Amino acid sequence: MAFSYDTKLIIHDNAGGQCECTRQNCSHAGRCTKTYQPTINPLYKLMQYAEQYIFPGFEFHHISSQAAGGADTATNGAFLCTFCHQQTNSYGTNLTSGG
């Protein structure tokens, strides 16, 4: 499975629209400063395209992978910019059906 629409909105809102990455292997000190800003209006994030809700440059990461029993819940999700998400060990790995 994947994060639901409502769960994605909660993860985004909990992060304050800012990438939550604090990994030392990324190109920032402390928390990443990249922030999602709707390009049209606040309702832009509600649009759906290709079965993914539009947050250009940002992705939703499972903190505990689904393969390890991680749930599709807001408490197991992180809002990451694409660059920081690519630095995770599990980026692009489809460990279970549905990604």
Biggest sheet descriptor: 2 strands, antiparallel
Q: Which strand-content bin applies to the residues?
A: 5-15%
Average residue pLDDT = 80
What class would the helix/strand composition place it in?
A: alpha+beta
Enumerate the spans where pLDDT stays under 50 for 5 or more consecutive residues: 95-99
| Number of spatially distinct domains | 1
**How many E strands?**
4
Count of DSSP helices? 2
Radius of gyration: 13 Å
**Percent in helix:** 10-25%
User: Largest sheet, order of strands side by side?
Assistant: 1-2
Write the element-wise H/E pattern from the N-terminal end onward: HEEEEH
Which descriptor suits the 3D outline? Answer: globular
Distance between the termini: 6 Å
Key phrases:
99 residues, alpha+beta, two-stranded antiparallel sheet, 14% strand, globular, disordered C terminus
